[in-house]
Amino acid sequence: MADETSPGAAISPDLLEILRCPEAVHYTDKGDDPGRLELVHGCWLVCADSGYKYPIRDGIPVMLIEVGKKYKDVPVADLPVPPPDED
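Structure (tokenized):
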């Protein structure tokens, strides 16, 4: 589902490589590098470890735990594109 090549991709691959889910980085049972994120729909960062989903608005990832948690139960296919302006 990664979509780094879409015309609306709002995040560089280098940044994606270093960003981690602020919730999942604390997980001790997820290996040596928990919280990795996948770019989905060109405007969402999804963490497989926590299930949290973070919107990218105006090129800025909104990496707040309360925002990621809000979208946890939303299936990836149902994430709004573009993400809503506010949470």
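The chain is about 15% helix and 15% strand. The chain has one domain: 13-78.
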